[in-house]
């Protein structure tokens, strides 16, 4: 696919220093109107598209033959994990796959180990990418993750510091107490920061939606609310996900999806993480040739993670069924008008950065 496609965002990134680049006789993929515009000539200068026209662009420019190829906007991965040194060495994999923007979902650490990057370092990386000192996707948004902080004053201070340190949003996790979540939403609104991520276990998902929770992550969590007693779903975890299958209630699921659509919340399924669970025993999945781009230490960790699932002979059928169930609910969500946002959990086990965007699009 990469050989047949030119990525507009990648080209403006790579050729920003040139006086002009012309992509000749290329077919433009118009993603706004859903159509193909063949035999177009595109002039890029000073990091901007200057002209799109059917006739030849005159002048001394670097020229790229776009015959039999397609030009489309750069892709975005809206759920990535880059805040560690091994992950930042894979930034070029995004660009190689036409992924020109990412939302980083865990952009800080406290305390930090020698391999982790904090929010200040991630903002430094963002500046280096934006000024072309380093090749990589634009870091569209950096998170300040909050896990177990309690008390209104402490949470207010956390949010103020997060804003001051350069966070673009606050990411929540499942173990955040309900009252802490309520304080957090209030404090974040006061600072103009969105709240996104995992809906806390103690917070009914409908309440989170009504409070403006901007994105719900993972196909391992949304199905837990599509059950006979959705109010009890908040007490369920991944390890009890069998209930999502045995107690599935499509009527309740449709009600939830309408709530999500009405609240303009985004859903980020990250299906590849559930695919890993379902296919951990499959040698074809495990021997992905693209693993050559991943360092040895990370490969070993991914193999160990997959081994844990592969050994669970009794659970294989369930992992497969739950993965398929998640795909079904994403289809229902799309048909219900829910905003589906592409995110991959890039750098999670067997979620190979850049390539994972194309894999997730197939999902």
Structure write-up:
The chain is of the alpha/beta class. It folds into two domains: about 1-70, Urease, subunit C, domain 1, CATH 2.30.40; about 75-360, TIM Barrel, CATH 3.20.20. The protein is built from 14 helices and 14 strands. The protein has helices at about 10-15, 85-90, 90-95, 120-130, 150-165, 180-190, 205-210, 240-245, 250-260, 270-280, 285, 295-310, 315-335, 355-360; strands at about 5, 20-30, 35-45, 50-55, 60-65, 70, 75-80, 100-105, 140-145, 170, 195, 215, 265-270, 340. Strands 1, 2, 3, 4, 5 and 6 form a six-stranded mixed sheet that branches. Strands 7-8-9-10-11 form a five-stranded parallel sheet. A three-stranded parallel sheet has the order 12-13-14, covered by helices on one side. β9 (about 140-145), α5 and β10 (about 170) form a beta-alpha-beta unit. α10 packs antiparallel against α13. The longest helix is centred in the C-terminal third of the chain and has 20 residues, at about 315-335. The mean pLDDT is about 90.
Give the total of beta strands: 14
Beta content comes to 15-25%
Number of domains: 2
Order of helices and strands: EHEEEEEEHHEHEHEHEHEHHEHHHHEH
Q: Describe the biggest sheet? A: 6 strands, mixed
Number of helices: 14
Distance between the termini: 16 Å
CATH architecture of the largest domain: Alpha-Beta Barrel
The name CATH uses for the topology of the largest domain is TIM Barrel
Average pLDDT confidence is 92
User: Regions with pLDDT < 50 over 5+ consecutive residues?
Assistant: none
Q: Overall 3D geometry?
A: globular
CATH class of the largest domain: Alpha Beta
Structural class label: alpha/beta
Radius of gyration: 22 Å
Q: What's the multimeric state?
A: single chain
Which bin fits the share of residues in helices?
A: 25-40%
